[in-house]
Amino acid sequence: YTQAITLEPQCAAAYDSRGIAHQHAGHSAAAREDFDEAIRLAPERAGPYNNRGALLIQIRAWPLAVADLTTACALEPDWHEPFANLGLAYLGAGQPQDAQRAFSQALARCPDCADVLLKRGMLSLWSHDLSNAIVDFTAAIELQPDAAPGYVARGQARVDAGQPSAAITDFTHALQLEPASSAARYGRAVACF
Prior knowledge:
Blueprint: H1 2-7, H2 12-24, H3 28-41, H4 46-58, H5 62-75, H6 80-92, H7 96-109, H8 114-126, H9 130-143, H10 148-160, H11 164-177, H12 182-191
């Protein structure tokens, strides 16, 4: 990316891509500089705002993340990813109703996003809305039946809902998929009591 930027220093996409590479390498400051430059060069593009917002979530700069992700959503209202990230930013900022709304908006744009279903389900679980949590976790499991996190999350919701037998089944299935899952082992032990 650096070579592309050297050849074409006004290429916002190159800065955005290099920012992503920096972020994945754990270089937050360099990533932020590149996202800032991508936004300066192409303020009409949603991608750099979304990527900078995701970085700001990582460093727990919640209000700045909300601002960037709100901009990304406005610039590209059909793209689910900024709405999912906005949900995380709102959650970090202590605004669970706004987080729930953002996750729901992401799912309206991408109903088959198991990751977003898990996030919205976790928010419902934390809010003690167990029936909606179980619905979201079940939908995520249907989309990704070979992924243990959905079973662990649904098992936890079922423990909280007073359904220990169903919870044990979920935790056991999660352990079949990921035998080293400490969350599934712990959850199954809790469900057995």
